[in-house]
Design brief:
single chain, 223 residues, alpha/beta, Rossmann fold, Dihydrodipicolinate Reductase, domain 2, 2 domains, 37% helix
């Protein structure tokens, strides 16, 4: 089986570090080169045009200040992009949406397959529930809230059922724990190990898609 060759932007971050480990036992994807702000082992964002490694997909989990350079580079080389950089501006998001008509781009508030199942369960719950729908999320203390996943849940429920989800966010955990509850439904994920594995799988999937607006897990799994 041919592996999806990945250029990983933000390679020295928590997710990139775990992805490097995950590649040791991955049968369908490999990281062939990395980009970061300053590390002699990898390319920097001023060296994008100097990259001579062959790659199939760009994964970007870096800083919003590097977002424009990565997107411009992806368009220049016409490679699919998995965009996970947070806190981008409305203008940057619009540029990403426009680019998604030229190259395949995955941009989701959720990158975890386990959480995607939870989101679908919440939607099913909302379809038949007549009361107020409250999402209670509890995260590690440095997490930005409301989480992107909470926003995805609220949007998905509203788009499908027309019902509003009230989000209640808490920062309590010292460990890297993310926790969501709606009624009797519960989803908890911990650390970045499984997240990195899921992103490798997404990179493998987006390699084989055609430009069709922004992809998320719901869209790519139903293709």
């Amino acid at each position: 089986m041919k592996k999806t060759r990945i250029l990983w932007s933000g390679i020295t971050g928590r997710t990139g570090t775990q992805a490097l480990i995950a590649c040791d036992n991955c049968e369908f994807a490999e990281i062939v080169a990395g980009v970061c702000r300053n590390n002699a082992k990898y390319y920097t964002y001023n060296q994008l045009d100097e990259i001579n490694d062959d790659f199939d997909v760009i994964v970007d989990f870096s800083h919003k200040d590097s977002f424009d350079k990565v997107l411009d580079f992806a368009l220049k080389v016409r490679k699919p992009l998995v965009s996970g950089t947070s806190d981008i501006t409305e203008e940057q998001l619009k540029n990403l949406e426009n680019a998604a008509n030229i190259i395949p781009i995955f941009r989701g508030g959720n990158f975890r397959f386990e959480v995607e199942k939870f989101i679908n369960d919440v939607v099913d719950f909302a379809k038949s529930y007549d009361g107020k729908i409250k999402l209670i999320e509890t995260h590690y203390k440095t997490k930005k809230i409301p989480s992107e996943t909470a926003k995805v849940i609220a949007k998905r429920v509203f788009d499908i059922t027309g019902k509003v989800v009230e989000i209640e966010s808490h920062l309590e955990y010292d460990d890297l724990i993310n926790d969501w509850r709606v009624g009797n439904l519960h989803c908890r994920v911990q650390g970045f190990e499984q997240l990195a594995k899921d992103i490798l799988k997404i990179a493998n999937m987006i390699e084989h898609q055609k430009p069709d607006g922004l992809y998320d897990l719901n869209k790519i799994l139903n293709k």
